[in-house]
Design brief:
By secondary structure, this protein is of the alpha+beta class. Helix content is 40%, strand content 15%. Among the domains are: 1-47; 274-317 and 326-357, no CATH class. The strands form 3 sheets. A 5-stranded antiparallel sheet has the order 6-5-4-3-7. Helix 3 (57-76) packs across helix 4 (84-98). Mean pLDDT is 78; it is low at 184-220, 241-245 and 269-279.
Length: 358
């Protein structure tokens, strides 16, 4: 039905009538609703020969170009494959505004709109962005921005299409700060020096290590004493830092009352959530039936979590069945929640009503 909508939109925008449409024998064009639409508006629908894509060469080459661009954009930024829709849309959006036809010496956008496109707002697909949180209620000192991934441009509004890494949703927003630098292209100087030191030590031969130790032993006693003094000073500074982090005695809360290891890092209540403690039960395969789900502990926990959510929110009330009324059944839907890298981070089970039985 998208072809009918697009045809009506073009005729309304350009105030012109479509005379002929040429396509292949794919199902999205050769169907009864589209044929009825063509007959109603006097449009001649032509077809290419079956199994002869070369007769529709321009469209086939354009389709291949979009696929190659989308594949490159996804793998270059190491994104999940389910972002292919946004990648293809962004590829088409960019091609219409930057590719110049050799015959017309214009871009597709300029030929259709009659004016040159503005590309100053273009950004790199898949780069890191920060989205202003203007939806959720913010408490004091909470972060105002959420980290996300830039996926493209909106066709219907002046906004960007981004993937919110915290809500795991694709959304449109104008309040976005985009970092066009490639992720992982820059590393701190301290990390580089640490890597260099590790590499030089690992690449030394055993003979070279022995020689270096001999050279240290052959140094004058004054230099050796200076090195020992510097090492002792470093050890003393490290002990001083550790002493600052040690437990300070308090009469109201002595050290004997501490549960667990006092030197362990600080943990919040979210660390002890059940769903994170059960991360080893995550399953990659989505079951097709309830019997398959009941055979795995991970999906049983997901189903129980859905039922507990119904009970907490007081979703239903038990009432007697009205006479001469049918009861609408329910159905379990099992889905895996993925992150931007395509990794399974959560098993989600939904209990939905079978509305088609009404």
């Amino acid at each position: 039905m998208y072809s009918i909508t697009y045809a009506l939109k073009i005729q309304s925008e350009k105030e012109m009538k479509i005379l002929t449409v040429r396509s292949d024998h794919r199902g999205e064009f050769e169907n009864e609703p589209f044929e009825t639409f063509c007959e109603k508006h006097g449009i001649i629908h032509q077809f290419s020969s079956p199994r002869t894509p070369q007769q529709n060469g321009v469209v086939e080459r354009k389709n291949i170009t979009l696929q190659e661009m989308a594949r490159t954009m996804i793998h270059e930024n190491k994104l999940a494959k389910h972002f292919w829709v946004q990648a293809v849309n962004t590829s088409c959006y960019v091609q219409n505004r930057i590719y110049i036809s050799l015959i017309l010496e214009k871009t597709g956008y300029e030929h259709f709109k009659g004016r040159r496109p503005n590309i100053s707002y273009f950004h790199q697909f898949g780069c890191t962005c920060y989205i202003l949180n203007n939806k959720l209620y913010l408490k004091k000192l909470n972060a105002k921005a959420q980290r996300g991934i830039f996926l493209g441009y909106s066709e219907r509004s002046k906004a960007y299409i981004v993937y919110n890494s915290e809500t795991l949703c694709v959304e449109e927003s104008m309040h976005v700060n985009i970092d066009d630098k490639e992720p992982g292209s820059e590393t701190p100087e301290q990390d580089e020096s640490f890597v260099d030191i590790q590499v030089t030590e690992d690449t030394l031969e055993p003979d070279q290590i022995v020689e270096s130790k001999d050279s240290l032993e052959a140094k004058p006693t004054s230099e050796a004493q200076d090195e020992v003094a510097s090492d002792e000073a470093q050890d003393g500074s490290q002990q001083a830092i550790q002493s600052k982090n040690t437990f300070k005695y308090n009469s109201s809360h002595p050290e004997d009352h501490i549960i667990g290891n006092k030197d362990s890092p600080r943990r919040t209540r979210s660390y002890l959530r059940q769903e994170e403690s059960m991360i080893g039960l995550l399953l990659v395969i989505e079951p097709a039936t309830v019997d398959e789900a009941l055979s795995d502990d991970g999906w049983i926990l997901a189903m129980q979590e859905e039922l507990n959510q119904f009970q907490r929110n007081d979703v239903w009330d038990l009432v007697p069945k009205p006479q001469q009324k049918n009861i609408i059944g329910t159905k379990w839907v099992f889905r895996n929640k993925l992150n931007e890298k395509g990794e399974v981070i959560r098993n989600k089970a939904r209990l939905v009503s079978q509305g088609y039985n009404q």
